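User: I'll paste a sequence; please echo it back and then give the predicted structure.

Assistant: Echoing your sequence first, then the prediction.
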Amino acid sequence: MNILSVTTNGLYCDVGDFYIDPWQPVERAVVTHLHGDHYARGCKSYLISDDSRHIAPLRLGEDAAVQTLAYGEPLIIKGAKVSLHPAGHILGSAQIRVEVDGEVMVVSGDYKREADRTCAPFEVVPCDTFITEATFGLPIYRWDKQQVVFDQINAWWRDNQAQGKTSVIYGYALGKAQRILAGVDSSIGPIYTHGAVETLTEAYRKSGINMPATIYAADATTKDFHDALIVAPPSARGTHWLRRFGDVSQAFVSGWMRIRGVRRQRTVDRGFVLSDHVDWTELMNTVKETSAERIGVTHGYTQVVAQWLGEQGYDTFTVETRFRGEQNEESE
């Protein structure tokens, strides 16, 4: 049975008459998480995780019809049994479990396996069919433990202080920025935030996530930022906004920093390899742990991952998407 099929609007469940992460406005959307490459604005209704409730008005609009569901709580939508389970990607991220007539399909959305303080940790959900992302689906992508990366960021920040430079670090405004804030040593100096980061960080605080004290950069009363850490989205690079901070050292935090040359393309001084997606080893281990026999692959290196898993004996298929994946979050 094909519980989900790919249509012109995205993944569709005919039995339940809903879409998962639709590409354009639909009647009913079930959304894995609120990064811009996983939902369409203007849907008649949305089902999201309860942990996303404070983020939803900022992403979907104040007037959006939103229903939230606690992790693990079942919901019957016509003939389909739906539940949401932690994906560990960002706050509120969920895997969508859909069961019809005893058959189970799980759409992972984006996910990571290393737990962090800013969201519920990933939960393995046994299923018959598992649809996995493949954003970093190449063997070259293997992540260090996050504390190793945070130690590197802390050392870079201290070194900049010694040189009288302001430390400016870029990470996507939803998810990555908050993970940076939660992981750095806030005793090193004051932390200032770009408006996009501050707004979403406040939503994290409302959700009960413990975040360090931050100062909205526009409210700063000082003109000396040399001891500070400035957390901003990638879109702030090269803008007039940066001038207020004087002599700066700029860094970018992303899994893409694993590849030489990407840092130069980003025109930053340092690149820190920290991803909110699974690496190659984690992806392969997750597929095995779900016990699924049929694997769908989407978002990223779909053909590479599908071919490799097919050679390991899995029944594989690819799910094309109109979204660009993590790189699309440049504007977040």
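The CA atoms of residues 131 and 208 lie 30 Å apart. The chain has two domains: 5-141+277-331, 146-272.
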